[in-house]
Specification:
Number of helices: 6
Number of domains: 1
CATH topology: Arc Repressor Mutant, subunit A
Strand content: 5-15%
CATH superfamily: Winged helix-like DNA-binding domain superfamily/Winged helix DNA-binding domain
Strand order of the largest sheet: 1-3-2
Radius of gyration: 15 Å
CATH class: Mainly Alpha
Shape: globular
Order of helices and strands: HHHEHEEHH
Largest sheet: 3 strands, antiparallel
Length: 116
C-alpha cells in the first residue's frame, strides 16, 4: 500500500466500539438525520455530492465525519468519490429496533409538519 492509499483510508469504529450516546448524538442533528434518511431509502451507497444540504461544504464534511465516527455510516473512496453506506446491520445488532424507530419517527414528524 502506498502513502497515498493510506491517506485515503478513513477511520471507522469497530462495531464493539459504537456507543449509544454517540449514535443518538449523531442522529439528533436535522442535517445528519436527513443524510441517514436518504441512505436508508437507497439500495445503493451514495456519494457525498448526492446530498443537497443547506450548509457549506466544510459543514457537510463535519456532518459526515460525525456520522462516520459515531458508527452510523461507513465511508469508502471509489476513485475520487467518497461513498456512504448506512451501518444498518451493526446498529441493529447493537441497538435492536433503534434505527427503524428513529426513521419511522422522523418520517411521521416530516408528514405532520408538512400538513400544518
Amino acid at each position: 500500500m502506498t502513502d497515498r492509499d493510506t491517506s485515503r483510508t478513513l477511520a471507522h469504529p469497530e462495531a464493539a466500539e459504537i456507543r449509544l450516546e454517540g449514535v443518538l448524538h449523531a442522529l439528533s442533528d436535522p442535517v445528519r438525520l436527513s443524510i441517514v434518511l436518504d441512505l436508508a431509502a437507497s439500495a445503493d451507497d451514495l456519494a457525498c455530492s448526492h446530498f443537497d444540504l443547506p450548509v457549506t461544504k466544510s459543514t457537510t464534511t463535519h456532518h459526515f465525519r460525525v456520522l462516520r465516527e459515531s458508527g452510523v455510516v461507513r465511508q469508502a473512496y471509489r476513485g475520487t468519490t467518497k461513498l456512504n453506506a448506512l451501518r444498518r446491520d451493526d446498529l441493529e445488532a447493537l441497538f435492536p429496533g433503534l434505527l427503524d424507530s428513529v426513521l419511522t419517527a422522523a418520517a411521521a414528524e416530516a408528514e405532520r409538519l408538512a400538513s400544518t
